Amino acid sequence: MHLIEQNAAIAPITGAGLSNPLQQQPSLNIYQNTTTTGTNIPNGLCAKVQSTFLSRTKRHYHRSKSSHKNMNSFRTTTSSTTTADDVLLYVPNLIGYFRVVFTVTSLVLMLTLPQYWLLATALYVGSFVGDLFDGLVARRLNQTSTFGGLLDMVTDRCSTLGLLFVLANSYKDQVHLQLTFLFLSLLDISSHWCQMYSTSALGKHHKSEDGNEGRHFLVRWFYKYYFFFGYLCVGAEFTYVIAYALQFTQNTTIHSLLKGILCLVIPGCFMKQLVNVMQLASACYAVAQYDAEVKNK
Hints:
Elements: H1 2-18, H2 43-78, H3 84-88, H4 91-112, H5 117-140, H6 146-170, H7 175-201, H8 217-224, H9 226-245, H10 253-295
Helix pairs in contact: 4-5, 4-6, 5-9, 6-7, 6-9, 7-10, 8-9, 9-10
């Protein structure tokens, strides 16, 4: 009996629409003190709900803003731009600076303190050996740069010209040798300058295969085949170095050794001068050909 009465008491409530969980319930409007059904809500409850909503919204906004700022900072860190200072401090360029110091020091010692000829020779050879590694380091560390190529070329040319100047000064009593060193200096600087200029005008690298397309075959071989390139460069530089050292090794066992090495490297020196002549002629012709193409456009 009591159970029937309880069910009867509950029935009006379930009939009011609460028995269906999917039926839309009255939604609360935080900006007004009434529900969508028009039922009044106390002002205190409305203010409390509105304050809670605004507080949570502000926290979410500041959290999102902070996260966005951190993400921008991360992107800036991981994708930082390279500056000129960075390029100047590339590892291969640091090697280039040491080469400059070694070369200048060796040339000064050769001219002013000939008694330190062995140290001067070692410094010059050290600078030359550094030229073999700066390019390898640049490619390994992905630090190749136009500035590095410029530094390398200028150091090479100034080193060779400086040593030829020292040799011309050392053999003052032999005019034919002085003239030889003079013409070797002029040929070296003019041929390499024209080679650099002619390829740069075409937007190419002076050692690249497409930059030397149409040049004399000796020039193409020189820049294409590393062994040929290496032997000629080593042959030329060591011919000059040995010519300097022979002055101080008279009547010693090392004198004969140096002469033996000279016989091995001097053919490379002669071939290098031939390549320089062809390089000068080919580069000048390439520039003239470029001028003709521009005129005919």
